[in-house]
Amino acid sequence: MKGVNVIVHLASPSGFKLKDPELVMKITTSSIDSLMESAMKEPTVVAVVLMSSMGTMLDSTKEAPYQYTEEDWDLTAIEAAKKHGMSCLGGLVYRASKVGAERAFWSFKDCKPSFSMTAINPA
């Protein structure tokens, strides 16, 4: 990472064969933690961008019309993935892991990094 100015994190385990939500969530959050810890140590980093997902915000318990903001998290995805365990559908595992990863990402904001942080949540 030495000399890097901008980091764009695009990787995430995905696929309908993902079955272990605990493992996938651990992998996604630990990869964010590792990336951000390294970025915090490199003075040349000016920006970190996370490719997240609109699914991190969507919550089926909200009634339409509802305007989502950066305060919204789909915590039901994490709860459901943990509840269903190994019988969980891959799409739900993916969505829960994206919620966990983005929450881990934003937790580094409290460390007052010297670089900007941006999460993109495409639909």
UniProtKB/TrEMBL annotation:
Keywords assigned by UniProt, alphabetized: Oxidoreductase
Q: Per the UniProt record, which residue ranges are transmembrane?
A: none
Q: What are the GO MF terms of this UniProt record?
A: oxidoreductase activity, acting on the CH-OH group of donors, NAD or NADP as acceptor
Instruction: Keyword check for Membrane, yes or no.
Output: no
Stored InterPro entries: NAD(P)-bd_dom_sf, NAD(P)_dehydrat-like
Q: Name the Gene3D superfamilies for this protein.
A: NAD(P)-binding Rossmann-like Domain
Question: Does the record bear Ligase in its keywords?
Answer: no
Q: Which SUPFAM superfamilies match?
A: NAD(P)-binding Rossmann-fold domains
PANTHER family assigned to the protein according to its UniProt record, in alphabetical order: NAD DEPENDENT EPIMERASE/DEHYDRATASE (PTHR10366), STEROL-4-ALPHA-CARBOXYLATE 3-DEHYDROGENASE, DECARBOXYLATING (PTHR10366:SF564)
The entry assigns this protein to a family as follows: Belongs to the NAD(P)-dependent epimerase/dehydratase family. Dihydroflavonol-4-reductase subfamily.
Protein name per the record: NAD-dependent epimerase/dehydratase domain-containing protein
User: Per the UniProt entry, what species is this protein from, by scientific name?
Assistant: Trichoderma gamsii
